[in-house]
Design brief:
single chain; mainly alpha; Helicase, Ruva Protein, domain 3; Cyclin A, domain 1; two-stranded antiparallel ribbon; 2 strands; 1% strand
Length: 348
């Protein structure tokens, strides 16, 4: 059925079905076929870059062990002198923490294929029932796969390396596909112009996207836009993370997956539309806050590993507000002076 729907994705009926969310049983398949593989990445290529990452990671940990003389804990500095690997390690610690499947108390010395997550039907059942998974005392079964995918990508694209918070994106992919497939999809997602602009980052291109976002921000939420101008809160403070992970760090899992479904349907424009939807949902609170308070709310994560400055912030979008969020997104008008998002972006 979904193969036929993919070929008619522009029809009103199909777009409506897609908006409601893709069934978990076919979600991974739909995501893979929606993004394609323009980079022509093969399983062999993944193995090559995984091996290179493993070699690099072993060297780093050998040095760390020599310096510390003890096992390496996940929250510690596992990569002295390598801030990207440190950021990746800490992000993995805070990725969907309530699921208890991506974190490991003690980091292995180098990437392995042990504790591999289930595949096929078992993966679909797991993705459907993630909230019922108990904590695993020896570490989550998806930890190694997540680290391997992120590490292989950082080796594949050293100019990008590890883009902050993309552990959330890779983790979501791993819930619906195996590591090789997740690597292919992740690489093709991050190769999209908008994603690459924020991941590298490319300042001039980022400025274009921020300026375009401001046009639609003022169009849809003029009061909040004026308030942000008054307190000096610019979109570069919060928007980059939102675009890269599509709010996965503040959404309940199924809601985050539904948002990613629509991203695969609509492309980069939906990331900014979703951002405006979230701002609309939080507008009443944001209008009462100063710059520091508003930034803390917008940067808050659903993770206990969030920084102390925002850890006390309320969980921004509880599961009960999923429909409220999507209603807010649906109410966002992505037309300004008869120009579409793409047309406004082209003028920047």
């Amino acid at each position: 059925m979904w193969w036929c729907l993919l070929n008619r994705c522009k029809s009103r009926k199909v777009r409506s079905l897609w908006w409601e969310g893709i069934p978990p049983s076919v979600r991974g398949w739909v995501w893979q076929h929606s993004i394609g593989n323009q980079l022509n990445i093969t399983p062999e290529l993944y193995e090559i870059f995984l091996a290179r990452y493993g070699f690099h990671f072993r060297g780093i940990n050998a040095l760390s062990q020599k310096l510390q003389g003890k096992k390496i804990r996940l929250g510690a500095s596992v990569a002295p002198g390598n801030p990207q690997l440190e950021a990746m390690t800490l992000d993995i610690l805070s990725t969907f923490p309530d699921l208890h499947i991506f974190q490991k108390e003690i980091s292995n010395i180098f990437p392995s294929r042990e504790n591999c997550p289930p595949a096929g039907h078992e993966r679909t059942v797991l993705a459907r029932n993630l909230q019922n998974i108990p904590q695993v005392s020896q570490g989550g079964p998806y930890h190694d796969s997540l680290r391997n995918v992120l590490g292989a990508y950082a080796t594949y694209r050293p100019d990008v390396g590890y883009a902050p918070m993309t552990s959330w994106l890779a983790a979501m992919l791993l819930l619906y596909m195996d590591a090789v497939e997740a690597f292919v999809v992740l690489a093709n997602i991050l190769n999209q112009p908008c994603m690459l602009a924020f991941a590298l980052p490319r300042p001039n291109q980022v400025k274009r996207y921020l300026a375009t976002f401001d046009v639609f921000f003022e169009e849809n939420l003029p009061g909040l836009f004026a308030h942000f101008k008054k307190i000096g809160l610019l979109p570069d403070v919060y928007l980059g993370d939102w675009v890269l992970v599509l709010l996965a760090h503040v959404l309940p899992l199924e809601c985050a997956c539904r948002a990613r479904d629509v991203w695969f349907r609509d492309g980069e424009e939906f990331a900014f539309r979703a951002a405006l939807g979230r701002l609309s949902l939080l507008a009443d609170s944001l209008l009462t806050l100063d710059k520091e308070g508003a930034a803390a709310l917008l940067l808050a994560r659903s993770s206990p590993a969030a920084s102390s400055s925002v850890a006390a912030a309320p969980f921004p979008i509880p599961a009960t507000q999923e429909e409220a969020l999507f209603s807010a997104i649906a109410g966002v008008r992505m037309v300004s002076r008869r120009r579409s998002w793409a047309q406004v972006l082209a003028l920047q």
